[in-house]
Write a sequence for this structure.
């Protein structure tokens, strides 16, 4: 799939430098970075949900179920 987006000149320079250092194409580097960002956002939201359940005192069963779902989702991702 092709996605086009705009970045500042300074960010483009950094992206190209890091991709070169890691011996990756700019495309693969950006794809990895976006996938990492999305994964981290999902983990953060799941952690917030677990904390909310803990504050409600419902952490026992609900939190364990949510943690198991997160683990399964993470394993199936890559």
């Amino acid at each position: 799939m092709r996605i086009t987006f705009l970045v500042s000149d300074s960010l483009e320079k950094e992206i190209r430098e890091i991709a070169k250092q890691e011996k990756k194409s700019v495309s693969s580097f950006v794809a990895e970075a976006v996938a990492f960002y999305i994964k981290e956002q999902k983990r953060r939201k799941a952690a917030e949900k677990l904390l909310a359940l803990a504050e409600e005192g419902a952490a026992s069963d609900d939190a364990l179920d949510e943690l198991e779902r997160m683990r399964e989702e993470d394993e199936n991702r890559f």
In short: The helical segments are 9-21, 26-56, 59-77. The longest helix spans residues 26-56. The chain has three helices and no strands. The chain has a mean pLDDT of 84.
